[in-house]
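User: Run a structure prediction on this.
Assistant: Running it now.
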Amino acid sequence: MPPVCRGHSSLAFTDRIEQGVEELNFPQTNEQLIGEYAGQEAPLLPLLHALHERDGYLSEDALRAVSDGLRIPIADLFGTITFYHHFAREPGGHGAPRVCTGYICRMNGAQELLESLDGATGMPCSGRCDEPIPVLRGNQTLVGLSAGALEARDTPVPPAAPDGVEECVFAHIRDPARKTLEGYRSTGGYEALERAVRAMTPDELIGVIDDSGLAGRGGAGFPTGRKLRAVRDAAGGPKTVVCNADEGEPGCFKDRALMDHDPHAVLEGMALACVATGAERAFLYLRYEYPETDAVLAAAIAEAEAAGVLGDNAFESGHKIKIYLRRGAGAYICGEETSLLNSLEGAHPFPRNRPPYPVTNGYEGTPTAVNNVETLASLPPIVARGAEWYRGLGMGQNAGTKVISLSGDVNRPGNYEVPLGLPLSDL
């Protein structure tokens, strides 16, 4: 492997990149890979990622094979892949270091780090504002303020809540065992889902969510229960649930903490949304810049399916709940729900005109509930502890809590879960 840094820092950087990275064994031919993915739900993105990993870039031969295998016109396919800035079109591009040049990282010397690494390019805010400066190379992220200081680090655990503040989604996040199914279930995990599939009707489940006052935590603030009911009542099918984990707003890194430290809470929330809407399939669309999170979520899904918590017969209740993990490729616009849906479908990820809205015409034209990570992670404690409890966490007329990402020129950067309605001066 050629050195990727100048001077004495190149060897250290290369060593850190290679340390702990498993050897990936891919089929040797385009046809084998296409055959593996073609029958899957939303096959294009995982297929392109597999080819990208195998070759280090997307070659013309590979793209023509994909075009033939998935019956996508080559011009459309080329237009789609060039829209994503993390798909390399030249050999070696996948392994070139990408340095975050978001405004928080620029405050900490990102430009100087970028100029010190051979072959490096900048990338927009990569969602690690609490630990600058991230450098992405292949499927590993290193963090440090200089080339010699770059190292792999775990996602920071959110600071402890101030006295008197009761948390919802962060209540157990500091327990390292929560990453595992056993640890999650030891603190009540999946009890809400089991209750929902065994002892509640969808209307009762939606009623609890409605009464809680939970509104979308991705920014729009649309009532969650109302959205789930709209999908359930919509004509046509199959119904679909999508978790928008394409956390792309500069300075925002709260969803990464939830997924890395409490992945089963997100999965349980998605499963509850499936039960409420009548969906049997759900997609978690993860931003490209979170490769370690991708591995955490994949392990959690496999663990839950092996235990019969998710899958074809969740809790032996007759409910099919299949969750598919799909990783984006670096397009800020995919955080917008209709762009995300187009990306999942393998189309050019432009926003759609609305109406119609995703609740009636979403993924592949089916009724679809799109919610963000924090919203879905709020569902298990709401169902477990009740609507009145959740409403009581907020201030004034505001229900529940909100996770705030603090970074920049502050004393204690990180994610904080606070009562919704808390004045900024108090924060």
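Residues 1-23 have pLDDT under 50 and may be disordered.
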